[in-house]
Design a protein that fits this description.
The protein has helices spanning 12-21, 35-42, 45-50, 70-88, 105-110, 112-128, 156-165, 177-182, 220-228, 242-246, and strands spanning 2-7, 25-31, 54-58, 93-98, 102-104, 137-140, 149-151, 171-176, 194-199, 232-235. By secondary structure, the protein is of the alpha/beta class. It has an eight-stranded parallel beta barrel. A two-stranded antiparallel sheet has the order 5-7. The relative contact order is 0.14.
Length: 249
Amino acid sequence: MKIGISALPFNLKEALDICEKNKKIEHIEVGLDNLEDVEVLKKYKSRIENLNLSVSIHLPMELNTCENIKYIRNSWIDFICKINEALSDVFDIKYYNLHLGYVMTNRLDRNRQKYLKNTVEFLNDIKLNENLNGMILSIENTYSKRGDFSNIGDRVDDFNYIFNNIINNSVYFCYDTGHNLISKGDYTQIFDTTKIIHFSDNNGIDDLHLGYKKGVLTDEIFNKIEKIDPDYLILEIDFRDVEDTINYF
């Protein structure tokens, strides 16, 4: 299991400073929202290599795999193609992580399966896209607070449906501990598809990205981590909490 931290282009230098000080960190997951962000990441290529860090990408939160307008849904695949093309000659990207997306709550309540089918089609289209051949994806559980819009992927049944219907065998589950504190679910039934853990703590209400022991996350989480035996465990937490949290691993 590689321990990693998450970063965005604006705080990438600070993240690498932390990696340099703590040799337990072997991976960095970078959130890219725009094509221009790729150029920022490229500037740190030499330093990332010198620190012997592997790299993954967190795709934009706005990405919507269940979008009902197919033209717009396909535009997200075009975006992923452009990101991947811009990075492929520079980094060996281990995986691309994404949230599944969001729907107007009343529409989702009326026909949840329709939007899950959209997500399955999206993931299958990536598999069939010759420009994305072999791309590894991780899809993570999220949470909903039942406003005008709700997320899909906030319950285990969503992922059971997806994994039972996709043809893409390069899709894995990312278990997000912080999201599960807000929208609780028994994800043990899909731990066999889990390759990544996003680790954070919170108060059970808001996604605060706190370090361990600063919220309501219990010691039971370590039993789950042991059962999953993930390839990557990403500390998605405030940089000030990294040092204390990493000592638990």
